[in-house]
Write a structure and sequence with these properties.
Elements lengths: L1 H17 L8 E10 L9 E5 L3 E6 L2 E2 L11 E11 L5 E16 L3 E16 L4 E17 L4 E10 L15 E13 L8 E17 L1
Length: about 210
């Protein structure tokens, strides 16, 4: 009996995550940069697209700060936010996993070794008239891209979200904002006088989305 109960419980959890979501995701508007390096905060350079099964953020410009080897402050950061409207009624959502895709280019000896992304939801909840803030995603991924000579190539990194955080139950009248911070750290293994690096053609982040009726 104990095995049967565990099996049924697992079945219902799997079913809840696998059930089909709404036919259309919410609409992004008022995309703005909240913080980050000036080069990574150019207006109109970042977009959000919320489909029924994915949330995509396209950072069209992302470079690192630092100009000489041995500089301990060689890193990249950007925080962007978007307001979302037209939420599907009687649904809540969670971000399940994240995929990074981009073209990393760097000078001699620069290696991308860590990516961290945090996604925070701020929403109006009419039942109590208060804003609800929740961190939907906060994952650090260790990577190893570049590091041997001048580097330029595409890469892809996947990060799983083991502990799902569910949004409030939405209806179409609710306004909600998602704020995303993307930090990138590099190792400096070179010996030349100058360094540079970044995602020359931008960086695309794609989350999987799970929906649940509520």
């Amino acid at each position: 009996m104990r095995l049967g109960i565990s099996y049924i419980g697992l079945f219902f959890v799997s079913f809840a995550l696998a059930q089909s979501g709404p036919p259309k995701g919410p609409t992004a508007k008022d995309v703005e940069c909240r913080a980050g390096l000036p080069a990574n905060c150019k207006e109109g350079k970042t977009t959000f697209t919320f489909e029924p099964d994915t949330l995509e953020m396209n950072l069209r410009n992302y470079s690192f700060m630092g100009n000489y080897h041995g500089n301990p402050g060689f890193w990249g950061s950007a925080t962007w936010a978007a307001n979302f409207t037209n939420w599907p009624s009687n649904y809540r959502f969670a971000l399940t996993d994240l995929s990074y895709y981009g073209l990393f280019n760097s000078s001699d000896g620069i290696q991308l070794y860590r990516l961290r992304t945090e996604a925070v939801l701020d929403s109006d909840v009419p039942t109590d008239g208060l804003n609800t803030t929740s961190t939907l995603f906060d994952i650090v991924s260790k990577v190893a891209v570049g590091g041997n000579g001048t580097f330029e190539d595409y890469f892809k990194v996947n990060a799983e979200n083991s502990g799902l955080v569910w949004s409030p139950c939405f209806d179409s009248s609710i306004n909600a904002a998602i704020t995303v911070t993307v930090d990138a750290d590099v190792r400096d293994k070179g010996i030349g006088p100058w360094i540079w690096g970044g995602f020359r053609k931008g960086l695309t982040l794609t989350w999987g989305v799970a929906w649940e009726e509520c």
